[in-house]
Design brief:
Oligomer: single chain
Strand content: 5-15%
Low-confidence stretches: 1-60, 325-330, 355-393
Helix content: 40-55%
Number of helices: 21
Strand order of the largest sheet: 7-8-13-10
Number of strands: 17
Bound molecules: protoporphyrin IX containing FE
Structural class: alpha+beta
Distance between the termini: 72 Å
Length: about 600
């Protein structure tokens, strides 16, 4: 008969129960039940929420060869060091406190919650907690002061590059390029000047309004057909179309073959970047591709090459037929095709640059265009010089984060009819006819709703992409050695009762009572990050979200479709924090209710 060992909760934190097991025995960890054979010794320890498990199966009958004994002892000591083996192997003698062993929380669909619980369980862990994932050394901050020390410190202005990102050639993209690189500075400057600056965001208002109107029509059509609307797809299509219109000057019919392919590519890329890949943390298995991530990346890269290549061909054909009559109004593809002589790009470079940069350059005026051309020349010949790379980050980042945030906002609207009515009353007092972009500035309550949703459901609860220490730094008085990955648990900060009164309550009014900026200056709520690598698309994201939410609320009364009137708020952390159960609503035209 197997012998039942005590459940992990019986073990004291960081103790090392030692057991000699003469016969078959079984015990439980958080994920598995482990059965041991006779003549074996078991060592196990509990580390708060996440168990670290060490099994050493040592023959008890014969003495250990000395070398093996030393090896085992060393392994035990590494495992038991605060922060786990990766910290023990570092030259840091007094790391921040943290759980022993290897923490597997990052592969969890609620990693932000698991890390928050761990940080609270560890002494001083809220300010800074050290932990190991495989051989990767990490720290996480769950407190505004240490979060600021990480985000605004130039020592943390690089990002660790995941294997998938490298294979999708993202390492040349703005989100991953090293901050010391002129290439990254150039991308940031161009993004600020040509894409995300206030003038550019205002100039794209007509796009936002018309895509929002199309979204309203899609909701009405879904209601007419099914009597309910699944918002995820409607929002995703609107966001994708918005970004693609900016990138390629083109609208996609998402039911067409091309549209379906585009959506598939984005979804696949998103999934690949969001997948927790052990190869990122265990160098020995890197080349084995056990999870098939590299294989999938290579397949996706091929598809993207064909897709973007086709867009270039279309532009070439249009130009051959005299299609570009206003030389100043061509889109970014035309800017590239205008390059002549030694500046002329190969097809693969053009795909690369187009994918990377197209957003920034769309419809630039003559003067800007000259500036862009010289930047482009430097970029292409000085930086990538014939190497193929491409970048889907704008599409991934822009499309999905906005769609995901909007789904959470609409879930909250369906759940809280009184808040919805208040927002609609505000709209009725401001809007004449249809919602215009200029109305958004006069809708402070709707802006508070967006802030409160960013607090409760931040799309990047761990600020999506972590930072990497490029040299030694100090955070909260602790040395953080170069090469450490640093994360900020914004979800934990935004749910901390020491910072927010009744943090679990959805209450937009809190932002009427106190004006809190979400743009990165106040680390109590910085859903777009802060410092040099703060999200460059934050103004565009907010402008789009405010407008589209206003359009949806102005047009319809929203209620949950489920018979019990509930909305499932379960979370799933992929690359962003999504609703685990897609939101399905009933949307009744308000005109019908009046
Ligand atoms: C609700 C919408 C969005 C949220 C919550 C969000 C959030 C974030 C966060 C937390 C970061 C990391 C910041 C840091 O490390 O300090 C980031 C970076 C970034 N975001 Fe956004 N974002 C959103 C929308 C957008 C949009 C619309 C775009 C572009 C079209 C965009 C493009 C980027 C890029 C390129 C980076 C990397 C910047 C760099 O590393 O230099 N984001 N975003």
């Amino acid at each position: 008969m197997p012998r039942q060992l005590p459940n992990r909760s019986h073990f004291h934190h960081r103790t090392l129960p030692y057991l000699k097991a003469p016969s078959l025995c079984t015990f439980h960890t958080s994920h598995s039940i482990i059965t041991l054979h006779s003549s074996a010794m078991v060592l196990t320890m509990a580390t708060g929420q996440e168990d670290s498990l060490l099994l050493l199966l040592l023959p008890t009958t014969s003495p250990l060869p000395p070398l093996m004994a030393v090896f085992i002892l060393a392994a035990v000591l590494l495992w038991l060091s605060p922060g786990g083996p990766a910290w023990a192997l570092s030259r840091c003698r007094r790391p921040p406190s943290g759980p022993t062993g290897v923490v597997t929380a990052l592969s969890s669909p609620v990693a932000h919650r698991t890390l928050a619980a761990l940080s609270h369980a560890v002494d001083g862990g809220k300010a800074l907690m050290a932990f190991s994932v495989g051989l990767t050394r990490l720290v996480v901050s769950s407190q505004p002061d240490t979060a600021r020390e990480i985000l605004v410190n130039p020592a943390f202005s690089d990002r660790p590059i995941k294997d998938a990102a490298r294979h999708l050639l993202f390492h040349r993209a703005m989100g991953f390029a090293p901050s010391g690189d002129a290439h990254w500075r150039g991308l940031r400057r161009l993004a600020a000047n040509h894409l995300f600056g206030p003038r550019r965001v205002a100039a794209a208002a007509h796009h936002r309004v018309s895509i929002g109107e199309a979204m309203v029509a899609d909701v009405a059509a879904a209601m007419a057909r099914h009597g309910e609307v699944s918002l995820k797809r409607v929002l995703h299509i609107a966001s994708l179309n918005h970004i693609m219109a900016t990138v390629f000057g083109k609208h996609y019919d998402m039911d067409s073959q091309e549209g379906v392919l585009l959506e598939e590519m984005v979804t696949e890329g998103y999934d690949l970047l969001g997948t927790f890949n052990w190869a990122d943390h265990l160098p020995l298995i890197k080349h084995l591709d056990l999870q098939g991530v590299r294989r999938r990346c290579n397949r996706l890269v091929q598809k993207v090459e064909v897709f973007v290549g086709k867009i270039i061909q279309e532009h070439r054909a249009r130009r051959a037929n005299g299609g570009v009559d206003d030389e100043y109004m061509g889109d970014f593809v035309d800017v590239l095709l205008d390059l002549e002589g030694e500046e002329k790009l190969s097809e693969s470079d053009m795909i690369a640059v187009l994918w990377v940069r197209s957003i920034e350059f769309r419809n630039v005026c003559c003067v800007t265009k000259m500036h862009v051309l010289s930047d482009l020349k430097r970029y292409v010949h000085g930086k990538i010089s014939g190497r193929f790379c491409f970048d889907q980050e704008m599409i991934f980042r822009g499309a999905d984060t906005v769609a995901i945030l909007m789904e959470w906002i609409m879930a909250r609207m369906a759940l809280h009819p009184e808040i919805q009515s208040k927002a609609q009353a505000e709209l009725d007092g401001v809007v004449v006819g249809g919602v215009a972009d200029a109305d958004v500035g006069n809708l402070p309550y709707i802006q508070c709703i967006v802030k409160e949703t960013l607090r409760m459901h931040p799309p990047g609860p761990l600020l999506s992409w972590a930072r990497l220490a490029i040299h030694d730094a100090h955070v909260g008085g602790h040395l953080v050695p170069a090469g450490t990955t640093a994360m900020v648990n914004m979800w934990s900060i935004a749910h901390d009762p020491a910072i927010w009164a009744e943090p679990e309550k959805f209450r937009p009014e809190r932002f009427q009572e106190e004006d809190v900026s979400v743009l990165g200056s106040d680390l109590r709520l910085a859903p777009f990050g802060a410092g040099r690598r703060v999200c460059p698309g934050k103004m565009l994201a907010l402008a789009t979200t405010h407008l589209w939410i206003a359009q949806l609320l102005h047009e319809f009364e929203w209620a949950p479709a489920a018979a019990n009137g509930g909305v499932d708020l379960s979370e799933r952390l992929n690359m962003s924090l999504e609703m685990a159960t897609p939101l399905v609503c009933k949307a009744v035209p308000r005109a019908q209710l009046a």
